[in-house]
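Memo to structure team: turn this sequence into structure tokens by end of day. - J.P.
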Amino acid sequence: MTSIRTKLFFHISFLVIFFIFVAWILSTLVLEDYYLWTKKHSLITNGLHIEDLYTSNSPDISLELERVANNLGAGIVIAGPDGTVKATSFSRAGEPKAFVVPPDTDEKQSSPRRHGPPPLILKATETIDDSTIIKIEQDENLNIDFLTYHHQLRNHDQLLMRLPLAALSESAAYASKFMVFSGIISILGGCIWAFFFAKKFTVPLLELSSVARSISQLDFTKKSTIHRNDEIGILSKSINNLSQQLNKAISELNTKNQQLLEDVEKERRLDKLRKNFISSVSHELKTPISLILGYAEGLKDNVAESEEQKEYYCSVIIDEAEKLDKLVKDLLDLSQVDSGYFHLERTDFNLSSLLERISLKYNTVLMEKDINLKLEISPALWVNGDALRIEQIIVNFLNNALDHVDSKGIITIHSTTKSDKIRISVFNTGNPIPDDSINDLWLSFYKVDKARTRAFGGYGLGLSVVRAIQDLHHNTYGVQNVDGGVEFWFELDAINNQ
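Reply from structure team:
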């Protein structure tokens, strides 16, 4: 494939050579004729000028004849009808020199002349008007052609101007040779110019091609550095703009594609969680419902004969019904969070008072299980949030601590103030949580020890509810293993002006 640079170089070089060749042909064929036509025109013009001076009896006629003769390179003679020289360019007026005035006919021209001029051979003649004739004649002795202008003046005198044509032919030959040499130089210069012009013209195109190639490979870092006010400059700006727009579009596409992949992955996780949720709910509902049905049928069939057995059957039914009630409430809370109907009623309240009220409610349970609950909180912890939901978090943490506290039986509620946040921690002595289970504790129906959780009456939803409430409050929460036990914590917005 021939490059544009090579094509441009050859085309420009061809045009230079073609026009120089045409100029040389024209100079060779036409230049001499053009010179002859120019000299004829000059003879006619100067003849009319001399006639005006001569017929007006100007005293400067001889000087003017000499000036015109020197300008034209011709000889000039004015003679009377009988051939007597009246004025000439060869001498001043009053100093006539022998000169032949051609008669009106060719026959007279070949007859003996008074002053004996050399014989002339007529080669061509051209009649301008009734009084003017231009001839081309050859001197037999000198073998030189002359251009002769013969004009009859208004007073019937004769004006004769004779111009040697050798100078014209020689000038045309010199001009033709000069055209050859100048043409060679022009061709060389033109080819050099064509080479550099083609290079300068194609270098921007190569740069634009490189930028376009980078764009095709999705590399938008390369930019065109061409700054011109022509079409190439406009193309450069367009390619840079195209690169910028494509880079922006592809970046946005990649971002949206990444977001789409994340959404698809999230949807997959949600679908998996939904299936697990349905499976877990079905499993958790199955056991209490079976117990309730079983003990209710036993009461109906009078299986329990004594009052103690009947009371036991009723307590089991009530206990399982309370578990179902708690499960349904937690499921309702989680479903409201997922659907967006779970709203907070945020107010400013005293968290210290709330913690004290909750601890009083647990006094009976704590005494039965011989558990020591310590409150290490400030007397006035004012926070902003939904008091009912915050109580739900604290209750879930306390229930979780009661279910997992060891024989030491120590539970501590501790408060820490950090600038605009208040952190509440619930600690219980006991075994640490496995590291691979810490991050999964907040998932619905997740249980570290499924057998023990069932024995304590839990369904693995309490911490999921905590997560949902804290997410709505835009506050953090967490759990960590500490020396001697486990600590759950959550943060609330502090009210500094209280």
